[in-house]
Amino acid sequence: MLFMFGVIVFIAYEAIRRMADTPAVAGGMVLAIGGLGLLVNIVVAWVLMRGEQTINVRGALLHVMGDLLGSVAALVAGAVIYLDGPPIADPILSLSSAY
């Protein structure tokens, strides 16, 4: 639990730092990686939903659903940046997915 809190703090810190000094972001690459992550998370969620319905499987499914939302955020950020939107979309969506 403490490790996860540390990861959340790190993601939030990096997102805020990148909002102040927005680096160039390859929107196409973010879009591709977000799409791949989304595909993997959908497959894993599908496998877990078809499996045995125990509390452990339910916990794993909820975890995958959280990861799926992160992949959607990456897809949205990548699409915005790829379509010549502001690069600040990446840290904003990173910050939103940290919570």
Automatic annotation (TrEMBL):
Pfam families: Cation_efflux (PF01545). One of its GO terms (molecular function) is zinc ion transmembrane transporter activity. It is found in: Membrane. InterPro entries: Cation_efflux, Cation_efflux_TM, Cation_efflux_TMD_sf, CDF/SLC30A. Keywords: Ion transport, Membrane, Plasmid, Transmembrane, Transmembrane helix, Transport, Zinc, Zinc transport. GO terms for cellular component: plasma membrane. It is a multi-pass membrane protein. SUPFAM superfamilies: Cation efflux protein transmembrane domain-like (SSF161111). The keyword Oxidoreductase does not apply. Gene3D superfamilies: Cation efflux protein transmembrane domain (1.20.1510.10). The chain crosses the membrane at residues 24-48, 60-83. Residues 2-95 form the Cation efflux protein transmembrane domain. This is Cation efflux protein transmembrane domain-containing protein. NCBIfam families: CDF.
